[in-house]
């Protein structure tokens, strides 16, 4: 996703914030990431990836728990870094699934993932979208998320963690350490395809492409930027909904 670049030297356009989202707002929300990602003491490292929303340049950074006194210090360091980078104008993502303890590269790929910890269902506007969603579009995505969760509940799935991705809805389901194999990848992709066939509308759809093991996803408590924001299409913060 995007170009990996040491050459990134700052955004080429002015950073706007029409909703007046403050650092305090980000700090209040950012701790919710640990309800989803890397909450256990068995992890050794994780990747945060920052991406220039206008140039597409990606800056990966690996955090190693062994460099910190305890898990809380590890998490707080990641939160501070994410907020600082976000307020500089970058979108911030986290590698969703645990990384192998022997992986030493700067940016995780599918082979670097130890196992699948989460299933992501990504619900957003249909088609290509280069600007933020309207409130009506966002609400339609969140409503579809409720419908998907209710349908999956009838199939025996637990209640998901539901988040606002900034422009759409994310549902996260625990996978209880599903193996990182090609058949398991295909299983996840098949489920996303089935859900799309069941729920997609001309306006809102489920993204079938988020089945890869090294998927990055929105870091909660950060502002998500795309295109130019306007009063009816503002930049919003990724946040927990339920």
Can you describe what's shown?
With 242 residues, this protein is an alpha+beta fold. It has helices spanning 23-30, 71-87, 135-154, 182-199; strands at 3-4, 45-51, 57-64, 91-95, 115-125, 161-164, 169-179, 204-206, 216-218, 223-224, 236-237, 239-240. A hairpin with a 4-residue loop joins strand 6 (161-164) and strand 7 (169-179). 36% of the residues are buried.
> In total, how many beta strands?
12
Largest sheet descriptor:
5 strands, mixed
* Anisotropy-based shape: globular
Query: What's the pLDDT, averaged over the residues?
Result: 92
CATH top level is Alpha Beta
Q: Please trace the helix and strand order, writing H or E for each element.
A: EHEEHEEHEEHEEEEE
How far apart are the termini? 28 Å
**CATH third-level topology:** DNA primase, PRIM domain
Count every helix, treating DSSP H or I runs of 4 or more residues as helices: 4
Per DSSP, what share of the residues sits in E-state strands of 2 or more residues? 15-25%
Number of domains: 1
Q: Which architecture would the CATH scheme give at its second level?
A: Alpha-Beta Complex
Query: Strand sequence of the main sheet, in spatial order?
Result: 1-3-2-4-9
Considering DSSP H and I runs of 4 or more, what fraction of the residues is helical?
Answer: 25-40%
Low-confidence segments? 1-8
- Rg over C-alpha atoms, rounded to the nearest angstrom: 17 Å
> By helix and strand content, what is the structural category?
alpha+beta
Please specify the SSE layout and strand pairing.
Elements: E1 3-4, H1 23-30, E2 45-51, E3 57-64, H2 71-87, E4 91-95, E5 115-125, H3 135-154, E6 161-164, E7 169-179, H4 182-199, E8 204-206, E9 216-218, E10 223-224, E11 236-237, E12 239-240
Parallel strand pairs: 1-3
Antiparallel strand pairs: 2-3, 2-4, 4-9, 5-7, 5-8, 6-7, 6-12, 10-11
Helix pairs in contact: 1-2
